[in-house]
Amino acid sequence: MATHTPGTLGIDFGTSNSALAWAPRGGTAQLLPLEGSALAMPTAVFFNSEDLSTHFGREAVTHYLEGTEGRLMRSLKSLLGSPLLLETTVVNHRQVSFQDIIAIYLATLRERAAHTLGHAPQRVVMGRPVHFVDDDPVRDAQAQASLQQAAQAVGFEEVAFELEPIAAALDHERRLTHESTVLVVDLGGGTSDFTVVRLGPQRIQRADRSDDVLATTGVHIGGTDFDQRLSLGQVMPLLGYGHLGPQGREVPSRVFFDLSTWHLINWLYQPRALAQAQALWTNYAQPHLHQRLMRVLQERLGHRLAYDVEQAKIACSHSGTDSAMDLAHIEPGLQAAMTAVDMQAQLHDLLARTVACARACVQAADLAHGKPDAIYLTGGSSALRPFQQALQAAFVGVPLIEGDLFGGVASGLAYSARS
Ligand SMILES: Nc1ncnc2c1ncn2[C@@H]1O[C@H](COP(=O)(O)OP(=O)(O)OP(=O)(O)O)[C@@H](O)[C@H]1O
Ligand SMILES: [Mg+2]
Q1: Fewer CB atoms near the end CB (10 Å): N or C, the chain?
Q2: Which band of pLDDT confidence, cut at 50, 70 and 90, is reported for residue 321?
Q3: Any idea where the domains of the chain sit in the sequence?
């Protein structure tokens, strides 16, 4: 077996989706199939407690949605840099930490790459957001170190890191015919990252590209935050969020925040959390709202609810038309609305903070004309219509170019090892 084929594997370990690209030395990067022919795979693990099997990606999500007994893990990247990463949980009779679960997922990426390539890659470049953790350099460094440890634990020997937006820019550059200064926007599941970079066919071969990166900014806001906000605004009130109890006080809101946050949902199923939720009944004036909450927790419907919100967000963003969420699995006939107006209202401040981060990036780049020549969009959340509108309003007249939303970062990572 050719174990030393020279080349680099780019690993885009995303909050919501992961992708791999392989670039042989001096050659073109190719995205690798991860699930059948799909070139990106949800960052999801399902531990089936019926037969103790483990599933990944779409298969993991499908098992969960079909009601197989077990545990779904999503948004694992959001735990990097948090003390929760080293907390352990029992899955399939094994005590594992969330860091171990990240390693289990990375091991599968490695196996699938090896299967396609015929050899296990040794040299990898992993993506990282501009900030794993906002305003906390120590925890941010810890997040990268934990990801590196997990990658090394599963056999990747040489692990380097590159910023995700720089990787996206390097991929976009291959398609440019002339030099231009581009604001690269990578809006994913967990973070929004911005880079102003000089790109062009004459620049590709330069060994050191650091001069071309004029500014980089990032903020810890992404699609999972949009899901959380939409869930709190459109769905959680149906379970009692914001509901006034018999004494005129609101039901304590913590449980609704956790239930709307992809990476915190599993904690609510622990016996102590269930007992706390059960005890909330005294805070409700309308008991049926509490019954809905308990049904979601006891039947472990939290991820399903988050998934429904996410799908309604995508549908409403695509078509601009209203969509309703069918919540009959919680109570017959129950529905939640998701209109374009709701979405605009719920996401307004998150989008404003995201666009402010884009502006800060362009300001820091100190461009001659004050504006980039183009804006390149990547990451699934960059397709969100209200975001594109807010961005266009901030940079009037600058063309928006939609790139490969799910594969661009991985390809760029495989190229980034050139320097
Ligand atoms: N058409 C769409 N409109 C709006 N949002 C979308 C659309 N398609 C996907 N998304 C959202 O994009 C996000 C996933 O994007 P992506 O796969 O780029 O993220 P990621 O790389 O996993 O995250 P990160 O880079 O932040 O770690 C999810 O939150 C998903 O809901
Ligand atoms: Mg990403």
Answers
A1: N
A2: confident
A3: 7-164, 178-222+347-402, 224-345
7-164 against 178-222+347-402: fold identical = yes
Strands 180-187 and 374-378: parallel
Q: How far is the CA of 22 from the centre of ligand 1 (A)?
A: 22
Is the separation of the CB atoms in 189 and 15 below 8 Å? yes
Backbone angles phi, psi at 58, to 5 degrees: -60, -35
For ligand 2, the distance from its centroid to the CA atom of residue 191, given in whole angstroms, is 8
Ordered DSSP codes for 190-226? S-EEEEEEEE-TTTTT-S--GGGEEEEEEES--HHHH
CA distance 288 to 73: 29
Q: What is the pLDDT of residues 38-95, one digit of tens each?
A: 999 999 999 999 999 999 999 999 999 998 999 999 999 999 999 999 999 889 889 9
Dist CA 13 CA 10 (whole Å): 9
Determine the distance separating the centroid of ligand 2 and the alpha carbon of 363, expressed in angstroms. Answer: 24
CA of 380 to the centre of ligand 1 (A): 3
Which ligand 1 atom is at minimum distance from the Cα of 387? 4
Question: Which residue among 381, 388, 402 has the greatest number of ligand 1 atoms within 8 angstroms of its CB, and so is best to mutate?
Answer: 381
Q: Superfamily assignment of 178-222+347-402 in CATH?
A: ATPase, nucleotide binding domain (3.30.420.40)
Ligand 1 pocket by Cβ (under 6 Å): 14-17, 77, 164, 188-191, 222-224, 310, 314, 317-318, 379-381, 383-384, 406
Give the global pTM: 0.93
Please tell me the distance between residue 262's alpha carbon and the centre of ligand 1 in angstroms: 13
Residue/partner pairs of 149-154 with CB below 8 Å, 24 or more apart: 149/99, 150/99, 150/102, 150/103, 150/106, 151/11, 151/103, 151/106, 151/124, 151/126, 153/103, 154/103, 154/106, 154/107, 154/110
Question: Helix, strand or coil for residue 185?
Answer: strand
Q: Which residues surround ligand 2, an ion (CB under 5 A)?
A: 14, 188
Query: What is the residue type of 90?
Result: V
